[in-house]
Amino acid sequence: MRLTIHNSVIQMMQCHSKKGVLLAGMVVVFLFAQACIRPTAHGSSAKTQSARSYKQLACLYVSTPMAIDAKLQEPAWQWAVPIILTDDSLSSQDPRRTDNQVMVKTLWDMENLYIAYRVWDHDLRAKVTRRDGPGLSRDDIVEFLIDPHNKKDSCWGPEDIIYHINLLGATKDDRGTEDCKSDATWNGNARFTVQVSGSINDSTDVDTGYTVEVAVPWTELGITPSADTRLGIDFGNGDSGIFFDWVGAWPFRSPEAFGDLVLQK
Ligand SMILES: [Ca+2]
Ligand SMILES: [Ca+2]
Ligand SMILES: [Ca+2]
Ligand SMILES: [Ca+2]
Description:
Layout lengths: L2 E2 L2 H7 L2 H20 L8 H8 L4 E6 L13 H5 L2 E5 L14 E8 L3 E9 L20 E7 L13 E6 L4 E6 L5 E2 L7 E7 L11 E9 H4 L8 E10 L2 E4 L13 E6 L1
Parallel strand pairs: 1-10, 2-4, 2-14
Antiparallel strand pairs: 3-4, 4-5, 5-11, 6-7, 6-12, 7-8, 8-9, 10-11, 12-13, 12-14
The chain binds calcium ion (4 copies).
């Protein structure tokens, strides 16, 4: 884990006046990319899809491994398909609502699933530095949850995993159990780096946000990836204990609500 403040990222993320244009452009790209996702032709996934419509995200193949440095400077990150997460679950007047905005992108190669987050957060806060430390979920965090075999069931089972990663690079990771509970004693092997733009635990200023780059090894997911592989997935953000996610799952560990991550090559 490396925690740094990088001037180029700060400059890029401080372009508030351009953010709206940037986000609008990304949404257009995202909608276009979603329209390009090929429908599942056969198999159990097709049956699942016919029963209910799930959010989908195309995950494009990359032939060169990503450097897990929270600098999304690899060319592949430029053409990876983005999704934008915002907290639209409550009215804008509700004090429990956060105005954080999050861009998530994914890529894959034969070794890893890559996930990148850019989070716009004006007050950076985190305290926990220990793995699985209590209270980590009340820090500023990103989350991802994976149902590797896309079962879309209600059980948080032994194959399902979740990572919370806070600003300080601490993680709370767990996986499910046979009786559908969470086992936080499980520690995963995903690599990640966090880079912040602003001051942590100092509310006298206005922060910009943070970037997280993650590599999850396929061996951890028990998957040999190929084009058209579908995973159940959800992405979330926590802003000092206020949470929102991609699909609106509640609780978050609800694989039946997850979207589909569709590998493409
Ligand atoms: Ca990188
Ligand atoms: Ca925050
Ligand atoms: Ca753990
Ligand atoms: Ca601050």
